[in-house]
């Protein structure tokens, strides 16, 4: 089964730049999907997996959380190019054996990029590195769990951190948070903290639920769709089908983004003859190329203009009946939006007054509006106020609980929303904790734990003894890379439940374990009660089953629920009131517990076996009601705010490549932007480039400024590109080292990946980052 891994790593001198594309998908996407699958997993594993992805009784794509229809027929190929890459990555027949680890010391691996590490293949055996060792070596599962138990019991619960990746399935996540709380800690940071935490922080107090309020079918009935701070062509390609269909029915689609992404303009549907032949369906009817951080000003301007239009034509714009019946705070909001500083608004947004008014009139005329957003809105200091302004607009026109309308935060990872539903949160509600205590006979801690940013601070202060990572790549995913990596290496034990090597394995604690686990595509059939399946939640609150079909690459892999159960037994002992063994042996037992603990999961085991799964309750969508503390939807008032770069600086945002998913690199071809074979690039507006005194393709070092301190990242190449004026873009995670740990979204504490103030200097051979001084 072994397939050789590529030996070559990234050489930034190989960078190739071509013209950006103006449409997404098409025949090229199909060819790349097949090519990557065959190279990684071979024809048989590739075809068997692709036939089952996102199908009834198949497995959920390990990529994004965009839903499938629960009312219509599924397409034969219910996946996109990046989904195919994610599947190929996991279904890989390449293997990382103990012999591989023996050949590669930690010193060797520290110089490797994430691209090289991830391309080596699936880890086959539990591995350990002890203090003073130069290489990982194999360890038995029994000794691995014994090691975890000894380290956890040698410290205190508050010095243990349990991190979770969005790939984790519902049943695993439920057991994982139960383990942490049984131990006595709410230190449960997860990838939500770094992406959509701002969304939940804004939505919960305003509409009473931290999730979106639309279904996929709403896209069939809408008049107007906003796609804000989001790049669906790369990050959620299946969304393009819904947008293209909406356009064909006459809906307007407004894209709001600093970069003119290919997926905004055209979609070559690879499941139609026209799409395969190169015919592109139009996507956005309007494109607002906004400055990074200007969205709050834009939505405040829309609110002002809608209220002015209502004055001119009473009863045609504002839904007064809805507002009076189920909302609070409208008068204060109306007063706050009574005036508008147009000069400040145009400066903040980079848009003209005419552009803003034109789109506001689309809003005024729309009878059903959906506003979609992603990380472009959630990773700035004023992210939460920005998202509250979106809710204000939706409340203003009664865009909740009616066909074709609502809020749509588009989640980026397959089960990141489900993990939060299952209780993965450092700030749990009393309702959840009381239900857990009643169900299991434990006493859950009430003190809040660490989120991802607080965990970074704890590492820096040497307040983390044990760090357990359920999937993910915490070292590269978070901000302030150098400080985080140094802190992780001072921890007494790091545990990584993983499928492939990654950077976090290399910047390990004094003792470190790698526990290889099954992936979504793998069969999970080594149980007394037979083969098992898991469940996930998509971006629109649909719970559905996921069941892998491929033979695992090694007999030494364990399923994630089994790993959690055995960790719990090693830490808590056999006399603990929770029956961990029963849950590991039969996942129906886990679901029975979930049913009794979490609202909305009544009759879980029966309903999850329905071919379409089931939809969780959503009061704003289902009954036009709002479970806030006041029982109403809440208008809010926020001050005008925007990002403004200091003299000589530009505003930097991070982004993904088209050949990337979070910290996983599938390849080096950001095809839609015309960037190939390199990643350390800065996309810069031609006018800004001229003003810096540098030229296209010049090699520079990037210096970020925050709170009087500087961070430095070396050897980036400037690429002239049609970005918004005053704004530049670089790939995540290469630019993460530039994000100061205190540069976060207020309230949500999400890192400010879209809010860095940077300048460029000629490249020198200086250290990778200038420390605080």
UniProtKB/TrEMBL annotation:
Residues 650-756 form the Molybdopterin dinucleotide-binding domain. Residues 122-496 form the Molybdopterin oxidoreductase domain. The keyword Endoplasmic reticulum does not apply. Keywords: 4Fe-4S, Iron, Iron-sulfur, Metal-binding, Molybdenum, Oxidoreductase. Gene3D superfamilies: 2.40.40.20, 3.40.50.740, Dimethylsulfoxide Reductase, domain 2. CDD domains: MopB_CT_ydeP, MopB_ydeP. Its cofactor is [4Fe-4S] cluster; Mo-bis(molybdopterin guanine dinucleotide). InterPro entries: Asp_de-COase-like_dom_sf (IPR009010), MopB_CT_YdeP (IPR037951), MoPterin_dinucl-bd_dom (IPR006657), Mopterin_OxRdtase (IPR006656), Mopterin_OxRdtse_a_bac (IPR010046), Prok_molybdopt-oxidoreductase (IPR050123), YdeP_MopB (IPR041953). NCBIfam families: Fdhalpha-like. Belongs to the prokaryotic molybdopterin-containing oxidoreductase family. This is Formate dehydrogenase subunit alpha. It comes from Glutamicibacter nicotianae (Arthrobacter nicotianae).
């Amino acid at each position: 089964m072994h397939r050789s891994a590529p030996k070559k790593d990234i050489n930034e001198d190989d960078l190739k730049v071509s013209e950006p594309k103006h449409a997404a998908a098409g025949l090229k996407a199909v060819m790349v999907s097949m090519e990557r699958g065959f190279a990684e997993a071979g024809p048989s594993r590739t075809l068997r997996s692709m036939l089952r992805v996102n199908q009834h009784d198949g497995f959920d794509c390990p990529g994004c959380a965009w839903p499938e229809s629960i009312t219509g027929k599924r397409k034969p190929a219910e996946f996109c190019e990046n989904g195919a890459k994610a599947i190929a990555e996991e279904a890989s027949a390449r293997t990382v054996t103990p012999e591989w680890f023996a050949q590669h010391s930690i010193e060797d691996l520290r110089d490797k990029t994430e691209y090289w590490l991830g391309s080596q293949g699936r880890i086959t055996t539990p591995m350990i590195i002890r203090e003073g060792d130069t290489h990982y070596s194999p360890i038995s599962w029994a000794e691995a769990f014994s090691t975890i138990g000894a380290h956890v019991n040698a410290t205190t619960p508050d010095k243990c951190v349990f991190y979770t990746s969005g790939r984790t399935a519902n049943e695993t996540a439920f057991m994982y948070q139960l383990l942490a709380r049984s131990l006595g800690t709410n230190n449960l940071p997860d990838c939500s903290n770094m992406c959509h935490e701002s969304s939940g922080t804004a939505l919960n107090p305003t509409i009473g639920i931290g999730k979106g309020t639309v279904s996929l079918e709403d896209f069939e009935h809408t008049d107007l769709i906003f796609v804000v701070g989001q790049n669906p062509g790369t990050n959620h390609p299946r969304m393009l089908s819904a947008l293209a269909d909406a356009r064909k029915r006459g809906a307007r689609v407004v894209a709001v983004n600093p970069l003119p992404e290919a997926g905004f303009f055209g979609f070559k549907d690879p499941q139609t003859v026209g799409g395969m032949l190169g015919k592109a369906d139009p996507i956005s009817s309007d494109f607002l190329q906004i400055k990074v951080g200007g969205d709050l000003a834009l939505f405040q301007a829309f609110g002002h203009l809608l209220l002015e239009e209502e004055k001119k034509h009473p009863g045609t714009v504002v839904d007064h009946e809805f507002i009076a019946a189920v909302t609070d705070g409208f008068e204060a909001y109306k007063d706050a939006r009574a005036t508008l500083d147009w000069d400040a608004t145009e400066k903040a947004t980079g848009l003209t007054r005419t552009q803003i008014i034109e789109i506001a009139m689309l809003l005024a005329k729309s009878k059903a509006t959906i506003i979609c957003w992603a990380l472009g809105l959630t990773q700035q200091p004023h992210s939460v106020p920005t998202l509250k302004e979106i809710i204000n607009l939706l409340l203003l026109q009664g865009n909740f609980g009616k066909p074709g309308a609502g809020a749509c935060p588009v989640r980026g990872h397959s089960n990141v929303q489900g993990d939060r539903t299952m209780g993965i949160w450092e700030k749990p509600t009393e309702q959840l904790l009381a239900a857990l205590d009643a169900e299991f006979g434990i006493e859950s801690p009430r003190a809040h734990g660490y989120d991802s940013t607080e965990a970074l601070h704890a590492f820096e202060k040497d307040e983390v003894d044990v760090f357990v990572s359920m999937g993910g790549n915490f070292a590269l995913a978070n901000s302030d890379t150098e400080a985080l990596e140094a802190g992780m290496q001072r921890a007494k034990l790091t545990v990584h439940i993983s499928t492939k090597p990654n950077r976090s394995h290399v910047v390990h604690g004094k003792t470190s374990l790698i526990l290889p686990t099954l992936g979504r595509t793998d069969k999970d059939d080594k149980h007394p009660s037979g083969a098992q399946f898991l469940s996930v939640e998509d971006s629109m609150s649909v719970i559905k089953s996921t069941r892998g079909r491929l033979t695992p690459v090694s007999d030494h892999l364990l399923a994630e629920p089994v790993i959690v159960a055995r960790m719990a037994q090693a830490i808590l002992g056999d006399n603990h009131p929770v029956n961990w063994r029963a849950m590991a042996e039969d996942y129906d037992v886990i679901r029975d517990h979930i049913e009794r603990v979490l609202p909305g999961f009544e009759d879980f085991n029966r309903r999850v076996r329905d071919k379409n799964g089931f939809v969780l309750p959503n009061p704003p969508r289902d009954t036009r009601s709002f479970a806030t503390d006041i029982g109403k939807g809440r208008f809010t008032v926020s001050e005008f705010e925007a990002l403004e770069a200091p003299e000589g600086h530009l505003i930097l945002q991070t982004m993904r490549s088209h050949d990337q998913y979070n910290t996983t690199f599938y390849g080096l071809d950001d095809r839609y932007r015309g960037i190939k074979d390199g990643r350390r690039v800065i996309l810069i507006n031609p006018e800004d480039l001229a003003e810096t005194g540098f030229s296209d393709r010049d090699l520079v070092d990037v210096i970020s400024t925050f709170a009087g301190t500087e961070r430095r990242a070396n050897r980036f190449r400037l690429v002239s590109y049609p970005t918004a004026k005053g704004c530049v873009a670089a790939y995540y995670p290469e630019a993460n080292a530039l994000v100061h740990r205190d540069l976060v979204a207020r309230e949500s504490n999400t890192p400010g990946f879209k809010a860095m103030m940077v300048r460029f200097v000629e490249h020198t051979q200086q250290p990778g980052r200038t420390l605080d001084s």
